[in-house]
Amino acid sequence: KYNVLLIADEVAVGMGRTGSMFASDLEGVTPDILCVAKGITGGYLPLAATLTTQNIFDGFLGEYKGQKTFFHGHTYTGNPLACAAARANLELFKKEKTLEKLKPKIQFLKKGLEGFMELKHVGDIRQKGFMVGIELVKDKRTKEQYGWEEKVGIRVCQKAREYGVILRPLGNVIVLMPPLSISQEELKQLLDAAYKAIRTVTSYS
């Protein structure tokens, strides 16, 4: 409409992470340029891809003398092992019906997170598909934040390891991004460990 190109960065949110193959699909948006990585190989090898509309592709297509070439490349572009891993991963997506099987697990995760809001120092829970952020606060009523020097997020993740689960903090936000192939039993273990770790650490904060 305005002759402006839309670029969607789906490096983290693409490849089923939000419950749809691409987060753009959930918004009913078709970007002109789509960046993907991470999940394209299932995390086994690093690979990224830039997808464009046919119109943009054709804009750089032509004879060398036409000077339409896009003179740019990535240092590690086109690695054959990474590309093979990506192809195998995408084949498994179809064969195992990964996206279809994801929907009930997303609901299971959502239901399991409801109990976290009962914890005294959980201020907010944000979820989209298999992406979750559990925000820890010093005061639930005022949403007062913990000081960075208290390292609450780090301590929660360290405690979770004692329960057999590796978590990642972003400041005072505990991030849950389980693999798409996780079972409901493993999801329960993840939720139980996160809950106990948050409860234990924040009870002394």
In short:
The chain is 36% helix and 18% strand. The protein is an alpha+beta fold. The strands form 2 sheets. Strands 4, 5, 6, 7 and 8 form a 5-stranded antiparallel β-sheet that branches. A 3-stranded mixed β-sheet has the order 1-2-3.
Describe the model.
The structure is a single chain. With 205 residues, this protein is α+β, with helices and mostly antiparallel strands. It folds into two domains: 7-95, Aspartate Aminotransferase, domain 2 (3-Layer(aba) Sandwich); 99-202, Aspartate Aminotransferase, domain 1 (Alpha-Beta Complex). The protein contains six helices and eight strands; from the N terminus they run E-H-E-E-H-H-H-E-E-E-H-E-E-H. Strands 4, 5, 6, 7 and 8 form a five-stranded antiparallel sheet that branches. A three-stranded mixed sheet has the order 1-2-3. The radius of gyration is 21 Å and the shape is elongated. The protein starts with 6 loop residues before the first strand and ends with a helix. The model has no long low-confidence stretch (mean pLDDT 94).
